[in-house]
Amino acid sequence: MQASSTDRQQVEYESLSNNRGRTKIWPAAAYLLFSFPSGILYFVILVVLLALSVGLFIVWLGIPIFIVMLYLSWQFAIFERNLAIRWLNCDIAPFTLSRQHKESWLQYLRARLTNKMTWKALAFLLLKFPLGILSFVFVLQVPILILVLALITFILGVICTPTLYLILAARNAPLVIRWPGQRPIYLYGMKDLIRYMFTGFGLTLLPRYILLGMAWVWKQLGRTLLGMSNQDLRVAQAEEQVRREQAKAERAELSRQQLIVNVSHELRTPVASIRAHLEVLLKACEQDDSLVLHPQELSNYLGIAHREAVRLGALVEDLLSLSRTEADTLRLNMASIVPGEVIEEVYQALLPLARKERMITLVRSLPERLPLVQADYQRLTQVLMNLVRNAITYTPDGGIISISTRQERSDYLVISVADTGIGIPADQLTQIFERFYRTDASRSRSSGGFGLGLSIVKDLVDAMGGHITVESQEGEGSSFHIHLRLAQGITNYNSRP
C-alpha cells in the first residue's frame, strides 16, 4: 500500500527535524534566483484571478474563479514547501494532515476558507514577489561585490601587514583570526600574512554570509507560512488519531457483524444434522418394541452425530484462536526450537490419517543438519497440523504430501508443505487467508472445513515474526511455505530426533 502525500510530509518533516543541516551555498543561490520569476508568476496569476472573481461575483461567475484561485495557491504553496525543503535544507512542518477525499465544490470551498494554511500560503506567495526581486538583484550583484571587496581588502591588507608582522614578532604564539562558520586562520609569519592578505584575511567571504543570511530569512518565512505551527500540528495529529481510531472501530464492528453472520451460517448445518439424527434415535427408543433400528444403522447415526460434534468443537477452537489474536491476548512462548522435532511430531500424528483413511503417501524430506528457528513450539505444531490436514482434505486418494525444509538467505528457514491435490485457482490465491473463505465451499463443508484454518495459520506465523507464502497450480497441487527467522548465534544441529 502506498503512503499518502500527508504521510510522506510527516515522515519528511521528522527526518529533517532529526537531521538539521547547514544550507549549502549553491542551492541557496539557485533558490534566490528562482524566487524572482516564480514570485512574478504567482503574483500575476493570483492577483488576476482574485480581481476577476471580485468583478464577476455579481453574475456568480466569480465563485468558480475564486475556487480556482484557492486551488492554485494551495498547489503553489505545496511546490514552494518542497522546494524550500530540498534547496534550503529547511525543516517545515506538514502543510496539512487531513486526508484527501472526494468532496463537492462547496465542501472544498468551505474547507479551504476555514483552513488557516490557505491564508498563510497566500501571504507567502504574495510576499515572494517583492522579496524575490531583492534576492534576484543581490545574487546578480554578488560577483561585483566580491571584486570590490577583494580590492578594498587587498589595500587594507597591504596597510595592515607590517603592523601584524610586528605583533607576530613580539609574541611567541601564532595570531588567530576567527570568522563565524569558518575554520580559524592561523598566522605564523610573513609567508602566511602575504598569502591571506589577498583575501583580506577572510573579509571577501562577506557576500557569502549575506547570501546565506537571505536564505535564512526565506527559511524562516517557509517555516512560518508554509507549515503548521507546533500547536496546530499537535491538534491535527490528535484529530487524525481520533479519525483513525474511529475508522478502526467501524472496521471492527463490521468484522464482528460479519463474524456473527458467518458463524451462524456455519453452525446451522452441523446442529441441524445432529438434531435430525438424534430425533430419529429418540423416536426409535419410544417404540413399544425394542429398538427398530438395526445395529449397523444405529452405528451410522451415532457416527454422523459424532462427526458433526467434532466439527462443532473444531469451530469453537478456531474461534477461540481468532478471538485471542484479535484481542492481542495470544501468548507466545518464543524460544530457539528444533524444527525437525516439530515436523516429526506432525508426521507421526497424521501419518495414520493419511495412510488408512485416504490412502495418501505422507513423506518428510529433511537434511541431516538444520539451524534452530525462533518460534513457539506449540503454535508451530498447530500451524503444520492445519496445513497438513488441509493437504489431506484436498488431495485425492493415492496422492502424495511432502514436508520439506530449505534455508533462505542467511536469516530464514523455510518449511514447505506440498501436495498433489486439486490446487487453487490463480485468481483466489490472494483470498485464501481471509476468514471463512473457501475455494470449494461444498467440498469444505462435507469434509469439515470452515474456512478458518488458513486464516489462523497466517495470524500465528505473523505473530512469531515470520510470514507464509503459497504457490499453486489448479489440478496439480499446492505448496505452502512458512518462513521463520533463524535463532541468533545458534549453529547447526542434527535434525532427526
TrEMBL record:
GO terms for molecular function: histidine phosphotransfer kinase activity; phosphorelay sensor kinase activity. It is an enzyme of class 2 (transferase). The keyword Glycoprotein does not apply. One of its GO terms (cellular component) is plasma membrane. Residues 228-262 form a coiled coil. Signal peptide: none annotated. The chain crosses the membrane at residues 28-51, 57-79, 119-138, 144-168, 193-218. Keywords: Coiled coil, Kinase, Membrane, Phosphoprotein, Transferase, Transmembrane, Transmembrane helix, Two-component regulatory system. SUPFAM superfamilies: ATPase domain of HSP90 chaperone/DNA topoisomerase II/histidine kinase, Homodimeric domain of signal transducing histidine kinase. Gene3D superfamilies: 1.10.287.130, Histidine kinase-like ATPase, C-terminal domain (3.30.565.10). It comes from the Bacteria. CDD domains: HATPase (cd00075), HisKA (cd00082). It catalyses: ATP + protein L-histidine = ADP + protein N-phospho-L-histidine. Residues 262-488 form the Histidine kinase domain. InterPro entries: HATPase_C_sf (IPR036890), HATPase_dom (IPR003594), His_kinase_dom (IPR005467), HisK_dim/P_dom (IPR003661), HisK_dim/P_sf (IPR036097), Put_sensor_dom (IPR025828), Sig_transdc_His_kin-like_C (IPR004358). Its EC number is 2.7.13.3. Pfam families: HATPase_c, HisKA, Sensor. This is histidine kinase. The lineage of its organism: Bacteria, Bacillati, Chloroflexota, Ktedonobacteria, Ktedonobacterales.
